[in-house]
Each structure stands twice: as structure tokens, then as C-alpha cells.
Amino acid sequence: MPTAIAVTSADLVLPPTDQQTPTAVLLQAPEAQTLELAIGDMHLLLEQHGYVIAVYPTGISPAHERRLHAIRSVLESDRIALLKVDLPPLGVAVLVRQLRQLSICDFSPGVVASAARLLAHYIHAGALLNSVTGLDRVPVSLRTHARSWVPGSQFAVLAGPHPRLVKIGPDTEPPPGPEFGTHLLIAKGRLTSDWVQQTLAPAWNVQAIQECPLPSGSPRWWGTGKMVEFASYLPAISVIYQLVSSVRRENCHWCGMELIGDRCGFCSSPLSPSENRTHAQGVLTHGTPAPPGTQ
Predict the structure, then answer these.
(1) What is the pLDDT of residues 66-105, one digit of tens each?
(2) Buried b vs exposed e over 206-218: b needs ≥16 C-beta within 10 Å?
(3) How many CB atoms lie under 10 A from the CB of residue 268?
(4) CB 64 within 8 A of CB 74
(5) Disordered: where is this region (predicted)?
(6) What is the 3-state secondary structure (H, E, C) of 48-60?
(7) Which CATH superfamily is domain 4-120 in?
């Protein structure tokens, strides 16, 4: 059985891109399930899959996060990875689907877990907002806050991989996007606008656009429900596989798990600077293959 990928909200599980991509397991919130049952479910997951990689956003409730750590502590298991991802909810959902794809490849659980930090760098996650007065996860100047009170104002905000905010106007250039082939996923809130499809997507040269429901945690993350959330991502598992394969693998000096990058996905122990490795140059810049069906 492949390594189990788990999430803390059902809307972080996007539809699979193919028939082979497994689904993710839902780890219930404390108010929805007793600790005893949650421990039993995790124990069963470990018995069935061997390892569990739980991915959750920074906006999760403190009680839910404490629940995850409590379960791992009670089970005394080093086979549970808890990955707290500093991406907006839609970006987290995209990352979860990519990890689901990787879980059935010939990578060890340690490599799959540590690949999350690498893959997150290639997800351009943002939103079109009607106001930034409630936005506290991306730097916003006082002047921009004041301008957001003007009726009809809209802002394009990029949260990752590099924060950027621009006020939309007739001659406004969209925030810089990926320099490689991507698909664009859109989730609409209570803001009526086609700017993402008609302006952002062509500027980013996206190869395809899909829509999905807005994650329940998105209005809280962005500070408003009047928004259109978006995320561009690498759609082809062949490209994702090549990217992860290009990174030198190490063994964690603390828990012994195999890893890529600069930090173990299971125990969070960092590598020393002399051990750090970056991905091979040219993986994405020397001709990214077009996703299936787009050629």
C-alpha cells in the first residue's frame, strides 16, 4: 500500500487527475471525533499503510493542531509526519494532490514528505480581493489599506512563492507568474469578476484552467469572503517526478529517514549547511513537457 496522505479538511482533497491517484484521509477536528477514536483511526492507518503524512494549513484551529501532535505522541510513532504548510487553502489542496500522486511512485515516505517544501515553491497561490483590510498573512502598507476603502477597489495578491500585492487598474500588470508550463485552478467566493480568467491566465501563459469550490478556510485566511482564489501548478506527474528525482537524497542524522532538501519531513530536523542540496538546474527551464491532452 502507498504511504497515506491525510488532511484536516475534506475540501483540501481535490478530484484526482487520473485513475491511479489515491484519495486522502480526513483527520477529524476535535469537535467532530473523540481523541480515543482518532487514535484508533491513526493506528489503523499505520497498520494499513506503514506511514502517514498529514498536511494542514497554517490557518487550522489551535485545538486541531494540538490534536494531531497528541495522537502522534500517544502512539509514540515516528512514522507520522505532520506538515504545516504556509500556503493559502487552495494552494495547500494543490500540494496535497501532488503528494497523493507521488505516494504511488517509487519514492520512500521520507522523500515524499520532504518533497512538500520543494513542490510548494512551484505553486503560485493568490487571490483577487475586494479589500485587504482584513489581510494579515501578506505584507500590506497603510496606504494600501486606506485605498482598499475606495468603493470598487480590487487587489491581486500573491502569497507564494514570493508575496506581491497590486491594485487592479486599467493599465495594471498582473503579479509575476511562473516561468514554466502550468495549469490554473480557480475557486470563486462572493466576488464577481473574470479578471483571473481574462487577464491573469493569459499573462501567465497557463495551459488550462479548471474551477473548484472555494475551500471553507479561504475567507478566514484572506480576511474576506469577497474573493476569487487561484493557484497555478505543475500538472504532469512526469514533470513532478523528474523534479523530485533531480534532488540529491540524504539520510536524516536524527531519525534515519531518507529526505531531500534541507529538512526532514518526519522529525523536522535540519541538515547542516554543508549537507544542503538544491534541485538540479534545468529541470523546468529546459522545456517543460506539455501536460497530457494539451499538445
Answers:
(1) 999 999 999 999 999 999 999 999 999 999 999 999 999 9
(2) bbeeeebebbebb
(3) 15
(4) no
(5) 276-295
(6) HHCCEEEEEECCC
(7) Dihydroxyacetone kinase; domain 1 (3.40.50.10440)
The pLDDT score that the predictor gives to residue 171 is 83
Element (H, E) at 162: none
Q: Could you name the CATH architecture of 124-233?
A: 2-Layer Sandwich (3.30)
* Local confidence band at 141 (pLDDT 50, 70, 90 cut-offs): low
Alpha carbon separation from 111 to 4, 91, 117 (Å, rounded): 14, 20, 11
For the chain, the helix, strand and coil percentages under 3-state DSSP, each to the nearest 5:
30, 20, 50
Q: Give the integer Cα–Cα distance in Å for 274 and 135.
A: 38
**What is the model's pLDDT at position 272?**
66
Contact 73, 102 (CB under 8 A): no
Query: Minimal CA–CA distance to 95: which of 294, 223, 207, 231?
Result: 231
CA atoms within 13 A on the CB side of 90: 29
Say whether pTM exceeds 0.85: yes
Whole-angstrom CA distances from 204 to 3, 36, 178, 212, 288 are 34, 48, 7, 19, 15
List the domain boundaries for the chain: 4-120, 124-233
How far apart are alpha carbons 148 and 128 in whole angstroms? 12
pLDDT at 120: 96
Distance CA 74, CA 255 (A): 18
Residue 180 and residue 123 in contact, taking contact as beta carbons nearer than 8 Å: no
Residue with cell 512563492: 161
User: Pick the residue with more confidence: 189 or 144?
Assistant: 189
